[in-house]
Write a structure and sequence with these properties.
The complex is a heterodimer of chains A (152) and B (150).
Chain A: E1 12-19, H1 22-32, H2 36-39, H3 56-70, E2 82-88, E3 97-109, E4 116-126, E5 132-143, H4 147-151
Antiparallel strand pairs in A: 1-3, 2-5, 3-4, 4-5
Chain B: E1 12-14, E2 18-19, H1 22-32, H2 36-39, H3 41-46, H4 56-69, E3 77-88, E4 97-109, E5 116-126, E6 132-143
Antiparallel strand pairs in B: 1-4, 2-4, 3-6, 4-5, 5-6
The chains are: A alpha+beta (152), B alpha+beta (150).
Chain lengths: 152, 150
């Protein structure tokens, strides 16, 4: 188990691997973001260039999945108040293989809740060419090491 | 189709509403955010939320679906470079009925391309009680109807 105390500012974590499959990518778009260029590569008046790119929100979901599986599952994750800033920097396409790089930017204890601490993180989603397709910065809340364990 | 010129700073658009079921919350969590408080009603009872709650990014995806379905975002929107200041203000729970309110905050013509402009919107997701459950500043790159020659 990794507690808030176990993360240090400046630490860089590289993890995860997710291959973008066309069926899942398009199914997400059909349910949540049905814009023509997320649904089909057919050339139509609505999609004159015949683009088929992932919904940015699907990429957000894949980031969350890699974060949850590789990092949060080994912590006492207490959720997050939000996301300060997120940028989609390169289109994601079917067949891309994505991975994650997370940098711990800041940490501070909670004054009102002694059992948790805050980490400000920068998460980058990279593709098979190590190009950043999306990045974001935000604060997460993590459980602190229980007192009896700290003493032992 | 919405063009850059049609968007008026200060104007607000409101979507219709859409329910969020326990099944949908769990389905989204299983695929994208498998944390106990989004996935497992029993574990969620014991969590800080006291019951099952939607992933914050599920709420964001619902915002997008309502925006597309109700014409807040349409073919005039070419892409989005990202968003700022997303805040999850209240938990979204099974059975909640969500809608979107989007207010145009700021318009900036592109310096390099006379046919597009950037627009910032304050978007709020509200529940059936009128409580804001999420707010965010969305950014859209939008076509001009009448680009001036460069």
């Amino acid at each position: 188990m990794r507690y808030w105390e176990d993360f240090s500012v400046g630490e860089v974590l590289e993890y995860g691997s997710y291959e973008v499959e066309i069926e899942e990518m398009v199914a997400f778009a059909r349910q949540y973001d049905p814009q023509p260029f997320h649904l089909s590569d057919a050339i139509t008046p609505d999609n004159p260039d015949g683009l088929l790119v992932a919904s940015g929100w699907y990429t957000v979901g894949l980031m969350m999945r890699m974060l949850a599986d590789n990092i949060l599952s080994h912590t006492v994750s207490q959720g997050a108040p939000g996301m300060d800033r997120l940028r989609w920097t390169k289109p994601v396409k079917a067949g891309d293989r994505l991975h994650m790089r997370t940098t711990i930017l800041e940490k501070r204890a909670s004054r009102s809740r002694p059992a948790i601490g805050f980490l400000t993180n920068r998460h980058e989603v990279l593709d098979q060419d190590n190009a950043i397709v999306m990045w974001c910065e935000g604060v997460g809340m993590f459980g602190r090491r229980p007192a009896q364990e700290a003493a032992s | 189709m919405i063009f850059y010129e049609d968007l008026e700073v200060g104007a607000t658009k409101t979507s219709g509403s859409r329910p969020v079921s326990a099944d949908e919350i769990i389905e989204f969590a299983r695929k994208f955010d498998p944390q106990p408080f989004h996935l497992d009603p029993v574990a969620a009872e014991r969590s800080v939320f006291g019951g099952l709650v939607a992933s914050g990014f599920h709420t964001a995806a619902v915002m997008m679906s309502l925006s597309v379905k109700h014409g807040i975002v349409d073919r005039g929107f070419l892409f989005s470079p990202g968003f700022d200041d997303m805040r999850w203000l209240k938990p979204v729970r099974p059975g909640d009925l969500l809608h979107v309110k989007s207010t145009c905050l700021e318009k900036t013509p592109s310096r390099s391309r006379p046919d597009i402009g950037s627009v910032r919107f304050k978007t709020e997701v509200l529940n059936q009680l009128g409580d804001v459950v999420m707010s965010v500043i969305n950014i859209g790159i939008i076509k001009l109807r009448d680009p001036k020659p460069a």
